[in-house]
Design a protein that fits this description.
- This protein has helices at 3-21, 39-47, 58-69, 93-96, 109-122, 148-154, 180-196, 214-219, and strands spanning 29-33, 52-55, 81-84, 102-106, 126-131, 161-167, 205-207, 224-227.
- It has 239 residues and is an alpha/beta fold.
- The protein has a single domain (3-227), classed as Alanine racemase (TIM Barrel, Alpha-Beta Barrel).
- It has an eight-stranded parallel β-sheet with strand order 7-6-5-4-3-2-1-8.
- Helix 3 links the parallel strand 2 (52-55) and strand 3.
- The radius of gyration is 17 Å and the shape is globular.
Length: 239
C-alpha cells in the first residue's frame, strides 16, 4: 500500500481521536518511524509530507540520513527533521547529536552529560524527552516516575539540553483500550511534575502512542505519536 494511502487513513483516525477528545489536530505531531524500511521508502514518506522521521539506531539510520539530509546540519530547508527514538548509548552520542534534532530517550544523568558535552561543542541546544517507565515493565527502558523531578534538578545546569516533555513505551496489547492507563499515567505525571518542579516550565510534550494504540494516546494527551507499520510499513531489508 502506498504511503499516501496510509497517510490519508491515519489522518482520518487522528482527526476522529481529536474530535472525541476535544483536541485540535494541529497539536498532534506525527513521527514516521522508518527503522524497518529502505532509503527509497523513507524518501517516499518525506515526499508525501512526513517531514518528521524517527529512527532507533544510528547504524540503521545513517544511509537514510545521508541520502535525505547530506551534511547540511539540522533543520535545513527542504530536509527532514530527525527524531532519535531508541535507547541511546553514550558512545553513540557523537554520531547522533548534530544530526537528530530531537532525542526521545533521555533516561540517565551520564547520557545527559554526554549530550550536553557534544551539543556544547556544536553550539546547539538539544530538545529532549525524558523516557519514563510508567508501566513498570522490567523489559522497558526509562526512569521511574518518582525520579523525574530529581533528574530535572540534576540536569538544570546543562544549558545545551532542553527538556521538553516525557516519553513512554506502552506494552503491546491486542485491545488498544488496555493501554489507556499507561498513557493517562504519563499525562498525570507530566502535570504533577510541572506543578512541583521549578525546572519543568517547558515540560509540555508527551511522546506516546504507536501504530497499535495511537488513537488512545491522542485521547489521553499525546502531542507526538510515533507511527511505523501503519504508516510506512515494514520491509524485509530496512537498508
Amino acid at each position: 500500500m502506498s504511503i499516501q494511502h496510509n497517510w490519508r487513513l491515519v489522518e482520518q483516525k487522528i482527526a476522529a481521536a481529536c474530535e472525541r477528545a476535544g483536541r485540535r489536530r494541529e497539536d498532534i505531531g506525527v513521527i514516521a518511524v522508518t527503522k524497518y524500511v529502505s532509503v527509497d521508502r523513507t524518501k517516499e514518506a518525506f515526499d508525501n509530507g512526513l517531514i518528521h522521521l524517527g529512527e532507533n539506531r544510528w547504524q540503521d539510520a545513517q544511509s537514510k540520513w545521508h541520502a535525505l539530509s547530506g551534511d547540511e546540519g539540522l533543520e535545513e530547508a527542504g530536509k527532514p527533521i530527525w527524531h532519535f527514538i531508541g535507547s541511546l548509548q553514550t558512545n553513540k552520542v557523537k554520531d547522533v547529536i548534530g544530526r537528530f534534532t530531537y532525542i526521545h530517550s533521555l533516561d540517565r544523568l551520564s547520557l545527559a552529560e554526554a549530550i550536553h558535552k557534544r551539543a556544547s561543542q556544536l553550539g546547539i541546544v538539544v530538545p529532549c524527552f525524558i523516557q519514563t517507565n510508567v508501566s513498570g515493565e522490567s523489559s522497558k527502558h526509562g526512569m521511574e516516575p518518582e525520579d523525574v523531578v530529581p533528574f530535572l534538578a540534576s540536569i538544570s545546569g546543562l544549558s545545551s539540553i532542553q527538556p521538553i516533555g516525557l516519553m513512554t513505551m506502552a506494552p503491546y496489547e491486542a485491545e488498544p483500550e488496555d493501554t489507556r492507563g499507561v498513557f493517562r499515567a504519563l499525562r498525570e505525571l507530566r502535570d504533577q511534575v510541572r506543578q512541583t518542579s521549578p525546572h519543568a516550565e517547558r515540560l509540555e510534550h508527551l511522546s506516546m502512542g504507536m501504530s497499535n494504540d495511537f488513537e488512545v494516546a491522542i485521547e489521553e494527551g499525546a502531542t507526538w505519536i510515533r507511527l511505523g507499520s501503519i504508516l510506512v510499513g515494514k520491509e524485509e531489508d530496512g537498508q
